[in-house]
Amino acid sequence: MKNIIIKDEGNYQVVAGNAISLLSNLPASIYELKYEPKQGFVLNESENNFKITKKIYGDIETITKRVFLTFEKRNKNLGILLSGAKGMGKTLALCNICSEAIKKGLPVIMVKENYDGLSSFIELICQPVVVVFDEFEKIYQNRSKRERDELDGQDSLLNLFDSAFNGKKLFLLTCNNDISLSEYLLNRPGRIHYHFRMHRLSIKEITEYCNDNLKNENHSLIPDICSIGARIPDFSYDILGAIIFELNNYQCGLDEIQEILNIDFCSKSSFNYSIFFKSGRKETGFDYLNSTSMHFKLDWYDENGGRSDYATINLTKLQWTGNIDGSLLLERKYINWVRDESEKDDFIEKIIFYPAREGYQSSINS
Predict the structure, then answer these.
(1) Domains of the chain, first to last
(2) From the CB of residue 4, how many other CB atoms can be counted at a distance below 10 Å?
(3) Could you report the per-residue pLDDT of 237-253, keeping only the tens digit for each?
(4) Is the dihedral angle over the CA atoms 6, 122, 91, 34 positive or is it negative?
(5) Which pTM was predicted?
(6) Which of 25-29, 103-107, 352-356 tops mean pLDDT?
């Protein structure tokens, strides 16, 4: 057996000749990055192959195709950010992108810990690779150094994301809340080209998921589930899956499920709204509403931003319109608008609320 002497600058390492293979490129596989005191950085093949066995809903396939089309067109690094609350599909999108990367012959490197000198090591890799930071804000905090343990912060990776040295890289980051990200990452498409925001599920996704997973005898409840999804901020696959599990396994209704599940039905949700008057006038606006509240004062504003008028409404009477946009309807009889003398013959016919894909405010802080 012949020994191999490996020299790295002034350091020599002796290894058994039958224990190594010399490769010009990393094979397309999933690797977990580790740091060994004696060896330095090493890439361990992971058992996770990111194979997806379930049906994919929503825009994940579209996102994946866009990512790789752009990566192929560019001659430099490409940064991708997936943000949103847990259960919105970030992990599924990450898995789909990584699975497609393997099919295209790209190695995937998972970074799960904060390592000093990470940038220097990644830049040594002279081939296109995907580098994944799942829950990036937890691995690298938004500061230059953590006060207690002196670990690198997010800003230490800025040059890595910018660089195209030794082969372009696809950097894939996920985070639960983009507020925790450095200002030098957000609104910087040179570093993070795409920011895919994973918000509450659309009515189309809810309907399709229910059709596939809810027992046939419960399909009549799908419109009511859609109505719940339109009301709850950050309505996720986790929430939808929990509701379907209860309906499939127990003789219960949605009212009982809302009483016992660990879901905050009293959080404020963001809505765009349109107010329709008998006279043909229309007012529009945006507000955070708690759709389980009995009464709410809805204000609308003039073109200068001053409050123009208001109406008192009964939010518990909101009904899903049945439209694919998830809109909710409040009928005239649940709206109290105090008209002045010039408007005595006018009245509000209806108000339609359109769930905004962004925006969340906890009822605790209201």
Answers:
(1) 24-197 (3.40.50.300), 203-260 (no CATH), 268-365 (no CATH)
(2) 13
(3) 999 999 999 999 999 98
(4) positive
(5) 0.78
(6) 103-107
Q: Is 187 left (phi over 0), alpha (psi -120 to 50) or beta?
A: left
Tokens of 152: 């690198």
Q: Report residue 208 as tokens.
A: 């399709």
- The more confidently predicted of residues 221 and 87 is 221
- Tokens representing 366 are 């209201």
Copy the structure tokens of residue 212: 């596939």
* Each residue's pLDDT tens digit, 118-146: 888 888 888 899 999 999 988 888 765 55
Confidence of residue 61 (pLDDT cuts 50, 70, 90): very high
- Report the alpha-carbon distance of residue 154 to residue 169 in Å, rounded: 18
Helix (H), strand (E), coil (C) string for the chain: CCEEEEEECCEEEEEEHHHCCCCCCCCCCEEEEEEECCCEEEEEECCCCCCCCCCCCCCHHHHHHHHHHHHHHCCCCEEEEEECCCCCCHHHHHHHHHHHHHHCCCCEEECCCCCCCHHHHHHCCCCCEEEEECCHHHHCCCCCECCCCCCECHHHHHHHHHCCCCCCEEEEEEECCHHHCCCCCCCCCCCCCEEEECCCCCHHHHHHHHHHHCCHHHHHHHHHHHHHHHHCCCCCHHHHHHHHHHHHHCCCCHHHHHHHCCCCCCCEEEEEEEEEECCCCEEEEEEEECCCCCEEEEEEECCCCCEEEEEEEEHHHCEECCCCCCCEEEEHHHEECCCCHHHCCCCEEEEEEEEEEEEEECHHHC
